[in-house]
Design goal:
Bound molecules: zinc ion
Order of helices and strands: EEEEEH
Number of domains: 1
Number of strands: 5
Helix content: 10-25%
CATH topology: Rubrerythrin, domain 2
Structural class: alpha+beta
CATH architecture: Single Sheet
Shape: elongated
Length: about 70
C-alpha cells in the first residue's frame, strides 16, 4: 500500500499502484480528476495527467464561443 498525491487538488489518498497496469487511469476520490499510471523503465510507477483532457477543454470553449 502507498499514498498517491493527486496531480490536481494535491490531496493524498490510499491506492496501490501495483493493482494497475501501465496506461490505466485512476480517478481522484476528492476532485474526480483522471490520472494515468505510467511505468517508467526505471524507478517507481508514477502518475501523469492525460493529455486528452486539454483537447476536450479546447473544443468545449470553442463551441461555446461559436454559439454566441
Ligand atoms: Zn484530486
Amino acid at each position: 500500500m502507498g499514498k498517491i498525491k493527486c496531480l490536481d487538488c494535491k490531496e493524498l489518498f490510499e491506492e496501490n499502484l501495483k493493482n494497475y497496469d501501465d496506461g490505466d487511469s485512476i480517478e481522484c476520490p476528492e476532485c474526480g480528476a483522471e490520472m494515468i499510471v505510467e511505468y517508467p523503465s526505471e524507478g517507481k510507477p508514477r502518475l501523469k495527467t492525460p493529455k486528452q483532457k486539454f483537447w476536450d477543454e479546447d473544443e468545449e470553449f470553442e463551441q461555446e464561443e461559436f454559439e454566441e
